[in-house]
């Protein structure tokens, strides 16, 4: 296998981190803490000298009016601004500077919001972006309060401002009265006006300007990013809901139709069957697989053809050593599963072909059940019901839940829509004529089962689902093994979808429903769903934690209920449901990773080869308990 | 030849180029912004 692309994970993780920072910063900047007056040092001014210090701006309505009053009085003042407000109204801040007034910093979101050096840095960054400067005027010095927040009477305000006959006068430019006080003070005889500091702001560094541009963009556009997140979540939630509704509705209808069919069952169909078992390094499982097939109770001949695809672990010897009647072992050099299947099909003598993986256990009635839909001459393929045979441990339980609540329920829906896209390699049957119509099993994709099923459907054959045809398969027991298996499935499914993309414009259920279903629920939903998790995380950490918890719990309950229904439909115990909530915080994310990795691999055009999964040969949950190894 | 497989190698080179550009751009971006703010902090 060529090295699969990995660099995109750095971009994705960093990109998500940046987006999280953007929306978090947006939310942070929107919070206005209680203003705290800065306890600055006393700034000694000569008698009769006043320095006007404005706070609370820049304000789009009142600051220009204050500037007008200052201009009329010929007075220069110092404006202590907040960084977030400068970002909201940079033009007003620029007007302040353009008219020769000084700019100082009061804080980031409110006056006094600079106890944390980070807030001061954010405020300086806002100034750097809007004005291109870095100011050393941080926090006002000790002030004489004009009382413009508490009083309205102009005489009182002027008296309060002049009570020390000198000093830094505290005013506000986010209201009308500040400018009016200036007008009155300017009329008072014996006073002159000075700036709080003569120090001119320095030019901001390029790093500070860049940071300012980023924080400004975040503050302004965080809402837009949040809206995009919201849209993605809305689509994901709608898709999730739609899938749940379809699951509940169609699976129920499918079951009802089956029950009605069972009341007047058609005559039992018992054609002779060839079972093809392709196997590569399946020495641990092959004996149990072949024995279980040979022990079938089908009413006609069942031949078993094991195709050993160049195994190095003695798979062929194990199969041959069983010495079971009707079992043939073919050996070939390692050519891949499609070639092994084709070899088996060529060697098979019957027209109904059951294709089964070398790690699967059949129940005695599986073969008989699986071939029943072939009584209808329009059926070209039949999917059986694959079940996890090793459900011990969390990983086994999760996969069991996914097989029931995901794959099998999907299959019931798609059966009702007559567009099953995958007859699983673990348990499926094909009519020889259908296989011939599509030129056998192709090696164009890594999901040869999906590719073959889509081809058969496009060729005009119906694909049926027979839930009673149960087969027990060994699920991966390690996270790495699970990843490899799902990576192959997911990538292979995308390959098959791309290969059969023309089905979208063809008449027939595959295009209209099958590929659209896969696109919506196997590509779009897993790509959008991580945004939902991210949003919940954002809700917990930044926004409304109780609301986020409620939303997340409601979704979890809906999904758990849906999974419970799926287990019931499949005749399974509800006990493993306890593991379902945990599945949502580990397993689901692994599946996202798989889908994203598959998509990137497809874009890169990397050639993937079959990725084998380590076998244990322990299918403890399959009928018969522990499977003998030989 | 499997579906999606890049026959000429050109797509893989282009994809890698895009990957490297995006990843390094994001790393520089995060380092500058994060560095400035953390430095001030």
Radius of gyration of chain A: 36 Å
Summed up, the helix count of chain B is: 1
> Would you list the SSEs of chain B in sequence order as H and E?
H
Question: How would a textbook summarize the main sheet of chain B?
Answer: none
Q: What gap, in angstroms, lies between the N and C termini of chain B?
A: 56 Å
Helix count of chain A, per DSSP? 20
Name the chain pair whose interface involves the most residues.
A-B, 41 and 26 residues
Overall number of strands of chain A: 16
Distance between the termini of chain A: 31 Å
> Which percent range describes the beta-strand content of chain B?
under 5%
Whole-number count of domains of chain A: 2
Q: Averaging pLDDT over every residue of chain A, what do you get? A: 89
Please tell me what the overall shape of chain A is: elongated
Number of strands of chain B: 0
**Proportion of strand residues of chain A:** 5-15%
As an assembly, this protein is: heterodimer
CATH class category of the largest domain in chain A: Alpha Beta
Structure overview:
The complex is a heterodimer of chains A (630) and B (41). In chain A, 50% of the residues lie in helices and 14% in strands. With 630 residues, chain A is an alpha/beta fold. Chain A folds into two domains: 31-204, Alpha-Beta Barrel (TIM Barrel); 233-604, Spore Coat Polysaccharide Biosynthesis Protein SpsA, Chain A (Alpha-Beta Complex). Chain A has an eight-stranded mixed β-sheet, sandwiched between helices. In chain A, helix 5 (117-131) packs across helix 8. The longest helix of chain A has 58 residues, at 206-263. Chain A is elongated. The chains are: A alpha/beta (630), B mainly alpha (41). The A-B interface holds A 5, 7-8, 10-11, 14-15, 17-18, 116-118, 120-122, 124-125, 207-208, 210-211, 214-215, 443-446, 494-496, 498-499, 600-608 and B 1-6, 11-12, 15-16, 19-20, 22-23, 26-27, 29-30, 32-33, 35-37, 39-41.
